[in-house]
Write the structure tokens for this entry.
Amino acid sequence: MFIQIENAVNFNRKRKLGKLKGVALAELAMYFIGILFVIGVAYMNWPTIRNFFRAGSQWLELRNMQSAATSYTSLRLDASAPTSANDLINGIEAADAVDGQKHDSFMTPKSGRWKEGSYTDAWGEEFTFADEDDGGHSITSNGPDKTYGTDDDIVVYY
């Protein structure tokens, strides 16, 4: 009698495990289908996703350039603003500096951004340095459409 009860318990345990395996496989299949869906959506929208991350990195880069341009302008004898990223990279000669000392560079080229002798934005275009009507200055990355003065431009003021 003891053996019969043990066999009955083992039989019920096997039946429950069998049901759990089926549920686990169905859940695994659903997870797999969900992951494939996410990958498909990401693949179809890759240019949008790439531009989103480029814009984020470009914003950080422009903030660094803003700080460098502010230092550059304050150390120039004539208080002139930089006209290109090369001015920030090359620095100020001693004759042009307020303190009479040479300032080597205010920023260094980041990997992949220094191309053919110029410092470019995340989309491969040069930055636009401009004087504003209020006497301030701006640095602009033309954004994904690579056209100056459009809504997708990323601008910092100093």
